[in-house]
Amino acid sequence: MWTFITRRLLQSAIVIIGVTLITFTALQMSGDPTYLYVSERATAEEIQRTRVALGFDKPLPEQYMIFLGKLVQGDFGNSLSYKRPALDAVLEALPATIELTLFSMILAIGLAIPLGVFAALNRGTAVDGSIMTTAMLGQSIPSFWLGIMMIMFLGLQLRWFPISGHVPFLMPLLQGQFATAFTNLPQSLYYLIMPSVAVGFYSLSRNARLVRSSMLEVLGQDYVRTARAKGISETAVVIRHALRNAWLPVVTLIGLEFGFLLGGVVVVEMVFSWPGIGRLVFNAINQRDIPVVQASVVILALVFIALNLIVDLVYAKIDPRVKL
User: What is the pTM of this model?
Assistant: First the structure.
């Protein structure tokens, strides 16, 4: 087990180096970053002094090594927009994005499994057709369009849900303010419903189809027929024998799912004015706030890699055939 974890950590380090190299290269391709730190009326001498002071006059390999050295210390530089460390701005926005992503994942996984199982057990019926038609529709609707439609119908016309805003739950929890966190939980969930549906509906539809396909394959296996022949109840056959193996592909996708949902929240956060990393990065790109963009990319990559490691360990626990 420890050998597997060590190997995965080494692979993760290689991925992080690749991510940092891409972000550093993108910075260089966007033009001379010196001009981001000087005024439009700066003279050539002032620009050159700033370039030397920031180290942008050095060869690119040396600049990259300096960048890595600062990154290890958590130093991404100061945000050009917020006038404070870029990492602080990203970490402040991260809990809101994690809340939205986790709730969307719970929706996408928690509803997909029963819907997929129900469709498989009623294969060829109107119930199966309705679920699969809805799933196909869900995979065809862009998340931002669904979010706008929910805002117009559920938010503005019916006034069931708020169309924007956020009540923090995760940040007080991480700070040890448990009373505040759980007091905020009902309101936080209330504000989360529409954004999380907009983010997670595509994944819910895809996972429901995946669970249905897996269940149909598993239900035709010999060990399932043997269990039924022994007189075991259909509920026990489905839950204890079929479902445990049928949802293994879904477990495999959870790590990738988290990364996909993290990418999906960028647009949805703008639609719902959600104060997460998506909106932060969007504003940073418009303002060419490179330190914030770099910090956001690296932090999200770290979160994605950590979750994939956890998923691999859980998968090995669920499926004894996996040899670490």
Answer: 0.77
